[in-house]
Structures are given as C-alpha cells and as structure tokens.
Amino acid sequence: MALIDVTVAEIIQESPTVRSFRLAKTDGSPLGTYLPGAHIDVVGPTSITRQYSLFSTPDAQDSFAFAVKREENSRGGSAALHEVGVGDVLRISSPRNLLSIATDATHHVLVAAGIGITPMLSLARYMDVHGISFELHYFARSEKEAAFLPLLRDRCPEKLRAHLGVAREDQDEILGTTFAGMDPGAHVYTCGPDGFMTKVVALAGRHVPAGSIHLENFHAAEQPDASENSAFEVELEGETYQVPADRSIVEVLQENGCDVDTSCQEGICGTCIMQVLAGTPIHRDNVLTQSEKESGEIMAVCVSRAAGERLVLDYY
Hints:
20% helix, Rossmann fold, five-stranded parallel sheet
C-alpha cells in the first residue's frame, strides 16, 4: 500500500494518557476529504505500523487528525508516537473505511469507551453537521480521562450522553435501557475495549439485527499455534498454491508474485480482504462483522484459513 510523507503540524494533550496529532502534507497541499469512520496506517519513528481512526472533520481538506493512547505495555507503537514532536515527519496510508454510516438507518446510536471515542467522534461530527439523527454514549473512568469531552460538550451537547465513572457491572443497565428504547430501524456503532464491545454487541443484538451493529476493532485476536493448523490449497486466477500449516495465505500468495496488499498482518485492518468463490473459510480476524463471516463470501487472508482442503479466491 502506497504511503505518503506528512508533517506533524500540532500536538494536543487531550488527557493524561492521550495525545492527538494533526497532520498536514509536507508540501502544504490539501490532504483531501475522507468518509467518516475511516482510519489510516501510521508508520512511527520505530518503523512499526499501526492503525488509527481519524477524528478530524471528514469534510475538511487541509489536514488529518488522529489520537494515540499511551499503553503501559506498549509494543513500541504508542510509546514511540508519544515522543514525536511538532515538525517531525511520519508516513501514512490513504484513509480507508471498515466503519461507515449506514445510509438506511433511521437513527444512529454511537457507543464509545475510552480511546474508542476516536472513530465515534468523526461519525458524530459528520452527523451533527449534516443533520443526521444520532446520539453518542461515551463511557470513561473520569472526566479527566475522557479525551475530547470538552469538544463534544461544545459541539453537540444535546446529542451527548457522558457516562463517567460507571462501574462495569452497572454498564449493562445503562446500555440495556438505551437499546430497548431504540427505533427498530436504528443502527449501533461501537468502539472500545474488547470486553466492552462484546457487551454492546450482545445487548444491542436483543433489539436490532446483527447487520445493524457495527464495530471498530484494532486489537488482534489471539491466534492458535501452527500445530493446530492443517495444510490446504488456494486457487487464484487459475493458479493453485499450496499453503502449509505454518504459513499464511497472504505469505504464500505474495511469495508467488500475487498482488495482495497487507498492512497489520494481524487481522485488524482489512487491507488483505479477498473474495471467497469456493470453499469455507475459518475466520480468525477481528475485522469482519459476524454477518460477513457467516456469509463466507470474504476473508482476511493474513490470519484466516480453510475449513477444508481447498479455497478459490479472487481480489476484493
């Protein structure tokens, strides 16, 4: 995937652990617009690539903005970005969407926890400007730790429901009441810690179809040991390739000159998604929705495998 150089134009400490970064093109030309809910790949100072949601106004062309929470057990990505300064150069990909606004929804319920506010923020800003019906539920440990809360209170106070310091065992009641009062045509969007999103999906699923629930997930699923894998073959454009138990589909395809883009190689960014024309995938990603997985029509070939002896794939 092509990357471009950008300059860090501004850094803001949004909370004790969250910093936001405004990026501009090094030559001063517009970066362009993007669809709300989009994310970008960011290559940091340690050459580690991570995916971050854009929270800037999607319609604005001059700059992009993303936020990074410094994790205590960082593998190098978030810690390195917290050392970046204004004027430093980063490399980013073009924006792409795994999360987008459902155009057929009668109402939109945005549910964020912690740093999961970032994709919800771009959705909320777009919906607010364009007069789209929505409400935003924001769970945070405290007001101090709630990044972007002042901005939300200023821009869309009547749409914001801030739930600060709510114990985990009390979240169910708030969420259950929220979802029970939804219009049948409403859609739900969520981002946050894995356990929180699992809870949101389960509770929302009692009131709306699975296809009306949308997630943004940047945490890789734990992968089984290669000893649990089986070998299989993959056909692409009339050519057949053998995928051993200890190799991924994308590794084999790229090794044989196939043009398959990758980024995270952990099943969380969606760059390597391909169509499944025949065969049954074993989904091991954290990027496809449950309905997409159940359809068996697409798969993330960086981590997912075959349930049988053969898959027939095509470019997505």
